[in-house]
Amino acid sequence: MSAAAVPGLVAVVLVTLVTLAIGTWGLRFSRTTSDFFVASRTVRPGLNASAIGGEYLSAASFLGIAGLLLVGGADMLWYPVGWTAGYLVLLVLVAAPLRRSGAYTLPDFAEARLGSRAVRAACSLLVVGIGWLYLIPQFEGAGLTLRTAIGAPEWAGPVVVGGVVLANVTSGGMRSVTFVQAFQYWLKLTAILVPVAVLLVVWWGDGRPHGTAGADGWSFPVAGDGGIGLYTTYSLIGGLFLGTMGLPHVVVRFYTNPDGRAARRTTVVVLALLGLFYLWPPVYAALGRVYAGRLVAEDRSDVLVLELPRLMLDGLGGDLLTGLVTAGAFAAFLSTSSGLAIAVSGVLTQDVTTRLVGEQRGGVAAFRLAAVVAVVIPVAAALLVRDVGVAQSVGLAFAVAASTFCPLLVLGIWWRRLTAVGALAGLAAGGLGAGGAAIATLAGYAPGGWAGALLGQPAAWTVPLAAAVMVLVSLATADREPAHARRFLVQLHTPESMSR
Amino acid sequence: MTERVRVTGPPRHTAAGRPASRLGDVHEQTALGDVYLRSLLREQLGLAVRVLGALAVTLGTLPLVFHLAPGLADADPLGIPLPWLLLGVLAHPLLLLLAWRYVRRAERIERAFADLVGNDRPGPGSEAP
């Protein structure tokens, strides 16, 4: 191992130790099953928003976006904008009602709303599927980061991150993870903000040169030419705007708010925190255009954030900043994978492991068993499956979430006549459409022209398809409208202050 | 630390069928309750649609605008190319502003609803004679 690896190694060890320490400290507050799942619903908006921000800013945000912007130019700006705007859509359509539904997880909500075990099972399957789809690129990105930063073998990243996540999740559940993730938001913001401030000073001192690396039309915010480019851009926007509300690790966070009003206020703070973070990856891309032409030529733009400090700054300064960005990247893997592991474990606990462990041994043992399953399987998958792009897998998870849970949540919250049969049909249509298109794309099937665009960015046709199927089948089975639908809507939309 | 309150979660299969709150008319299937609920739902949904409409008109039309007038992408006010300024910087305060206005209005609608229902028929916890 060379001297160049020292800052990265120190950063990874420090982040790991602090994460475990905060997780252990949080354990003092975790006693009941409710603590493990939803931190007993006592998390205040400020802390909760930091935790949501920490959980949401994944490897794709910390590393992926800057590289995509450097290579692809302004049309990639829709990723950070879409990831933030998704929270506005979530705020106005589902935040407060979802909290008031009183359910622990997405399958809980679906079952309570529609009174159907079949819908519950379909939702559980989707939560686990989307969660694992999102976990695999996190573990893969961890392998990439450890190799770049400290020259570790590629299997080390998934194993180390998987181990730390498992230790944290099984020891303290949601309550301890809340503290860990709040800390990790601020770590990530510091780790992206301080280096970029120093590097901007360096750039200014160099006489503010202009860069030319990257694509032609670097400032053009539409992907490609003509109708296909416009379709691709709008489909990406639709998938990102609507997909956020369907991500299992995002939704489970809303149950930790004390009430619906706090859920709304939390979301506003989240929007501020995300906006504050996403201001900076474009600056890395712009500086990379000047200083990191080599990375573009070598097709290694995804490590731009990790390598830019040393490309611009020699000696101790470059080493310190490299350590800082490595710490931020590692925190990004840890927090997002912890959140996903919690969400998947929660669903597995309720639907699988409680039966295996037995009720009398208690929910906590079942939760720990579920967490092992939730983490070990995607780690193994990340070790077996190589070279599924981080941004590609993440975009896929958004498209599937937008085509399944988004129509289910929106119709379930605002439309009394949704039936279980309609929901099942819509989930199947959206899940098979978006999932099938995504699997085809990942398997390397990429026809040209319109067919390629429709498969590569399916959200623009799968979301309306799923919603239309849900509405039409519900209308056709109107006699099976759940008897309690009206009461449930009352509970979702009336302020808690009135029901006490 | 803030004060810790032990709140155990609801059992899993209860939300179906049993009302969790006591709202008189709104919970009972009376005509008056129906009117209340419909008006609350319509107001909240209308507000949500207006906010989403504002989002569609501002951010949502940008790809179309740049598609129709590609020359705009070359403008660079403040030394930053226009698309980068709009999407990289200005989009974020816009989203925050929309969210903040939404929360204020949604809470106002809920207060008005609480006043309406509360004045019409005092809840079981009130001191009304």
How is this fold's topology laid out?
The complex is a heterodimer of chains A (500) and B (129).
Chain A (H helix, E strand, L loop, with lengths): L5 H22 L5 H6 L6 H12 L2 H14 L5 H16 L1 H6 L5 H9 L2 H34 L5 H50 L20 H18 L4 H7 L5 H19 L2 H11 L1 H5 L6 H9 L2 H43 L5 H22 L5 H25 L5 H23 L6 H8 L2 H18 L8 H9 L7
Chain B lengths: L30 H30 L1 H7 L13 H39 L9
Could you give the distance between the termini of chain B?
Answer: 41 Å
DSSP strand count of chain B: 0
Helix content of chain B: 55-70%
Give the percentage of residues in beta strands of chain B: under 5%
Assembly state of the chains shown: heterodimer
**Gross geometry of chain B:** elongated
Could you please describe the fold and organization of this structure?
The complex is a heterodimer of chains A (500) and B (129). Chain A is mainly α and 500 residues long. Chain A has one domain (3-387): Up-down Bundle (Amino acid/polyamine transporter I). Chain A has helices at 6-27, 33-38, 45-56, 59-72, 78-93, 95-100, 106-114, 117-150, 156-205, 226-243, 248-254, 260-278, 281-291, 293-297, 304-312, 315-357, 363-384, 390-414, 420-442, 449-456, 459-476, 485-493. In chain A, α1 (6-27) packs across α9 (156-205). The radius of gyration of chain A is 22 Å and the shape is globular. Chain B is mainly alpha-helical and 129 residues long. Chain B has one domain. Chain B has 3 helices and no strands. Chain B has helices at residues 31-60, 62-68, 82-120.
